[in-house]
Design brief:
Length: 178
């Protein structure tokens, strides 16, 4: 079973800060533009909410590793490392007003949302998001075997796609948060 959790920039607020760890809070501090901060805040909180719901733990207890494979800085793709528990595979994306998290217990996933108006070539948007999710899923494992599908975005003017491991996604659960 795979999960997709949607949220929106309007969910951003000081109340979410308590869910985040010190690395996530430091990342927010480093962003100058309020919209970037909001998307980063909601993305980190939504990831924790989704994993917490899946794993039966508190959002603040979710352990997220964002170590970049190239330079070691904490800005890489998130990996869940809940000690002593099976950790799900996750992927996060945000664009414009939308934030999305995908989660699978079976293998690497990739999710991407894109505000079409932000793309240089809007006609290429479906291919763009599809390539992006396949890239994300494959970077989770070189042996990744799965497929990409279109994902319906909850707002007009956005395109989204989802890559799931083979055998997952028969019962895709879509949630809106909060
Ligand atoms: Zn890096």
């Amino acid at each position: 079973m795979a999960f997709v959790w949607w949220s929106s920039l309007t969910a951003a607020g000081q109340g979410l800060l308590g869910m985040l760890d010190s690395a996530e809070q430091a990342r927010l501090e480093s962003l100058d533009r309020p919209a970037d901060r909001g998307r980063s805040m909601v993305g980190a909180a939504l990831l924790r909410a989704a994993v917490a719901s899946h794993s039966g733990i508190a959002p603040a207890d979710v352990v997220v590793d964002r170590t970049c494979e190239e330079c070691g800085a904490p800005h890489g793709a998130p990996r869940i490392v809940n000690p002593g528990r099976a950790a799900p595979w996750v992927s996060v994306s945000h664009s414009g007003l939308l934030i999305v998290v995908a989660l699978s217990g079976r293998g690497p996933v990739g999710v991407d949302v894109q505000r079409v108006a932000d793309l240089e070539d809007p006609a290429a948007a479906p291919e763009w998001v599809r390539r992006e999710v396949l890239f994300k899923a494959r970077s989770g494992s070189p042996h990744w075997d799965g497929s990409a599908r279109e994902l319906e975005a909850p707002l007009p003017g956005y395109l989204a796609a989802l890559a799931l491991p083979a055998g997952d996604g028969q019962d895709l659960v879509i949630r809106n948060w909060p």
